[in-house]
Amino acid sequence: MRVLLLGGLFGALIGFGLLLMFVRVPAFRRPRLDDRLAPYVRDAPGVGGFYQLGDRTFTPFPTLERILRPYFRDGARLLERILGGGAVVRRRLQQAGQDMTLEEFRIEQLIWGALGFAFALVISLLAFVARGASPVALLVLCVAAFVVGVLLRDRRLVSQVKHRESLMIAEFPTVADMLALSVTAGEGPVAALERVSRTSKGELAKEFRSAIQDARTGLSLVEALEKVGDRTNLTALARFVDGIAISVERGTPLADVLRAQAADVRESGKRELIETGGKKEIGMMIPIVFLVLPVTVLFAFFPGAIGLQMVTQ
């Protein structure tokens, strides 16, 4: 029975491979109108279909990846139709400071899911050969591993967004003080932003450089900074943009506004540090109660128990 199941599994894999080869025969894949027009309009933005990767690779095997690129394209389209939420993913990619597109992110999700599926498949084959486990349960395990891999890539993107936002909050007071010094020295807001973005390094400086580039293309400084606030979704940066807008429109002193915002961010950081310390204090009670205290009681009780045993004898 085990030999029959194993033979059926290998036969299904071979049949699936032959089916893929049959489907990918050029005679059965007529090029679409978009694919036929793409070489003539490749310089136009947003033209070329869903899948535009260029020469970028995602694995250490670029040759094999280029061979499998049509399958990646179809898989990315299918995954986008199943999961949806393309606008949310694009916004998260902007917040994380990633230069990849939605299509490239879907490809990475497919790769993570494929790695999870391959790992679960190896475990399933070992379990099937060693203990004769149910093939249906093993198939469910492989599918679940694929889904977990896809979701883990999404969770990693969320963690990257949170990490970048924490870095920007940590950099904001210093950058605000540098801007205040530049403005106090007589420079305008644009010149001060250029100086700070040129001399400082970090995620916030990158956002200011992008804002300066937008301002040079024709947008006003306030509109360019509002785009930064929309991308980052940070309250401190939103107040920073509002302060600059009010200062530019009404002529209020910009240096005082920047110093006040830097002080507010520092106070907010102190409050968050105190809250984190309170939470860690409760967490530190767990090893004390469950590890240190039982050992202390044991050391205090054991000599007395030995003494009582010797007395009774």
TrEMBL record:
InterPro entries, sorted: T2SS_GspF_dom
Keyword terms, alphabetized: Cell membrane, Membrane, Transmembrane, Transmembrane helix
Location relative to the cell: Cell membrane
Membrane topology: Multi-pass membrane protein
Transmembrane segments: 6-27, 110-130, 136-152, 288-311
Domain Type II secretion system protein GspF per the UniProt entry, residue ranges: 177-299
Major subcellular location class: membrane
Name recorded for this polypeptide: Type II secretion system F family protein
UniProt organism field: Tenggerimyces flavus
